[in-house]
Amino acid sequence: MNVFSNLRTYLIVAFILLCLASCASQTKIASQKPVEKETKASRDVILNSAETALQEAEIEWQKNNDINQRNNLLLAAAQHFQTGRECRRTDIIIANIEPFLEDPLQQQYSLLLKAECALIQHYASGLSAELVKTPIDAMISWLTPITENQFLARKEVVIAHLAALHERWDLAANVLSQQLNADSPLNQSAEHILWQWFLKASKSTQNTLSDNSSFMRPYLALAKILEDEDLTDSSRQQAIVFWRKQHPTHPLSADLPDGVKGYLAQSLNDVRDIAVLLPLSGRVQVQGDAIKQGIMTAYFAKLENINTNNPGQAIPNIRFLDTGSDNESFLSPQITSEGLMQYDIVIGPLLREHVSLVKDFNLPDSMLVYLNRLSTEGPMTGPANNTSDTSAKVYFALAPEDEATQLANLMKKQGIRTPIIISNGSSLSRRMIDTFNQQWIALNGLDQIKVPKIVTFSDNKGLRIGITAALDVLQSQRRIGQMTSLTAEIVHSVTRNRRDVDAFAVFALPQQVELLNPIIEASISLFTERTIPVFATSYSYQHQLNNNSIRDLRNLVFVDMPFLMPAQRESALAHQVDDIWNNPPSSFLRLFAFGYDAFQFSEKMQQLAYFSHTDLKGLSGKLTVNNQRQVTRSLPSAVIQNNSITQTDGF
After folding, report:
1. pTM of the full structure
2. In what order do the strands lie in the sheet with 622-625?
3. Nearest Cα to 355, choosing from 295, 281, 278, 287?
4. Which residue segments constitute the domains of the chain, with CATH numbers given?
């Protein structure tokens, strides 16, 4: 029996060596987010140490048959591989020796290495927290038995990262702030990781951390400078410089966060002249005029605020330049590189082709808020790292793809698993469906959920047939017909439908959506009391609803901008707009809000572009800037039920 046991243990070591040799050349793990890049020379040294430990483990076993010492050497090799960013090889060692670890210290060490590597590999994958390959609950179960003092600090660091994956920023920041000196592979650039989590934590947690630790006080002081809405850009720059002089030896001061570094590199002047480039003639004149009205309303609100609160402040000049609606050229002769250089801020143009033309002007000292996106725009090196530009350039658009993404997120959050997509077949609908499906598959990647079935219709009859077929009602009707044909007796029957379908995602016009609910209700079996919700974007909603429309749209869950939600429909600004423009349709209100927010955003664009935790709560959504220089709109959602519209989330 001992001979067999010895042979088995020897084969384990041999198997580990074989597996590691086979994967050594093909294992390439990208640099993890929380881990700084190592030099190739230092990494080679670490990996050589791992190989040496493996060889010593084999020699030790052959010489002394000491399983405890062999396991120590194998765990040392696993640690070296982890340090050298070769977690796949660490996992191979742990998987093979774990069943044979009897020493509690070794058992705890293996669990710690396994949990750390699960996180390292997740960060390397670039996937979102929802798609962490190793379930967070599993990692927590690995950490629970770890009680040895020598592992506790590293365990706490893992707990902090797991809290961050759960978006429990208060816990994450609090735990990590106490373990900045822990010898953990996740603790490279720990001060910068803590800075990111600190900004996302609640204000009460920020204050508590600052009160309890002199090391954390500069964090709070810098955060307040970045978030102070009363500071101008130039004043904020001066405040940051003064903060650095106050804390010259603090790690955050010695190595500024990327966004702060990029912000300080900007040439920021007082805004005196603003140019707005819009199509005020031609085929898209109506859209251009609605946006103009929103911009002018925001501009006059700013003038009123200056006259009331700060009469000495300089009033910026604003000028509208007509781009026309021709994709190939501009109508106004002043829209040239030389003509636009005299403006501090340029808002627009609206048409994508015009955005591309203005982008080629290479205006070095102007801040630009493009009112559309370029499909080929790639990720920036980070507002943070790009210190050669002397201004911010961002892309602000009412992109329907963004709403499709948020709709998928909302449905996933509400536990939907098997939706059916309904489309009117328009090009806009197809664009949103493509984006929705991409996000849906990404969100459910670990569950291997298939792309939802799509029902496309062109008229009422097609809509009815498509829904009944998708719910297998037609199949039920055929079975009933077959049973009826087999007997001369009267057959009493009720059709049944698929029970796995738990939602519809509709991409159609409002008047088409109103036809949807009655068809769905007629297709649902009488044997079920379950209501199947319908989810939609703003493409399918218009705010001017009568009682019949509200009845037909019951159970509709939709996302739309705050300005069209019931609460803001009662605001003074909404009433003013309704009075001046005679209760305009939803399409006008969305463009008006877009223009209003474009002007508001232009005043805060440097702050929003360089400090990713800041946002602007506007009429069109909560606005932030992503790493592609795109303004992202977070929209609230609402549900129509009980003859009313109720906002279910938002800000």
Report:
1. 0.82
2. 616-617, 622-625, 631-634
3. 278
4. 2-212 (no CATH), 273-395+590-634 (3.40.50.2300), 401-560+636-649 (3.40.50.2300)
Q: How confident is the model at residue 131 (pLDDT cuts 50, 70, 90)?
A: low
**Residue 650 Ramachandran class (φ > 0 left, ψ -120 to 50 alpha, else beta):** left
State pLDDT tens for residues 598-649: 999 999 999 999 998 999 999 999 999 998 889 999 999 999 988 889 998 7
Position 47 scores a pLDDT of: 63
pLDDT at 586 over 50: yes
pLDDT tens for 138-180 read: 889 999 999 999 999 999 999 999 999 998 999 999 999 999 9
Residue with token string 């509200």: 550
Tokens standing for residue 212: 């309890």
The residues, any chain, with a CB within 8 Å of residue 85's CB and separated by 6 or more, are 29, 31, 32, 35, 38, 43, 120
Q: Is the pLDDT higher at 88 or at 12?
A: 88
Residue 491: phi and psi, rounded to 5, are: -100, 120
pLDDT at 382: 42
Closest CA to 397 of 440, 434, 358, 347: 347
Instruction: Kindly report the average pLDDT of the chain as a whole number.
Output: 84
Residue 497 near residue 473 (C-beta atoms within 8 A): yes
- Contact in structure between 267 and 389 (CB atoms under 8 Å): no
Q: Residue 341: which residues within 8 A CB-CB, separation 6 or more?
A: 363, 365, 366
Three-state DSSP class for residue 631: strand
Residue 17 has pLDDT above 70, yes or no: no
Closest CA to 94 of 104, 79, 105: 79
Residues 6+ apart with CB under 8 A from 330: 277, 321, 323, 324, 349, 354, 357
Q: How far apart are CA 11 and CA 186, in angstroms?
A: 33
Alpha-carbon distance 31 to 37, whole Å?
6
Question: Could you tell me where the DSSP H helices lie in 65-189?
Answer: 67-83, 87-97, 104-125, 136-143, 149-165, 169-177
| Continuous segment of H or E residues that includes residue 304 | helix 285-309
Number of residues written out for the chain: 651
Q: Burial, 295: exposed, middle or buried (Cβ in 10 Å; 0-12, 13-18, 19+)?
A: buried
d(CA 538, CA 521): 23
| Residue 96, pLDDT above cutoff 70 | yes
DSSP letters spanning 80-108: HHHHTT-HHHHHHHHHHHGGG--SHHHHH
Could you give the CA distance from residue 430 to residue 433 in angstroms, rounded to a whole number? 5
Calpha distance 396→373 (Å, rounded)? 7
Tell me if 479 sits within 8 A of 494, measured CB to CB: no
CA distance 287 to 586: 12
The answer to whether 205 and 197 have CB atoms below 8 angstroms apart is: no
Residue 599 is encoded by which pair of tokens?
Answer: 């002007």
Helix/strand/coil for 452: coil
pLDDT value for 155: 97
pLDDT band at 500 (very low <50, low <70, confident <90, very high): low
Distance (Å, rounded) from C-alpha 573 to C-alpha 571? 5
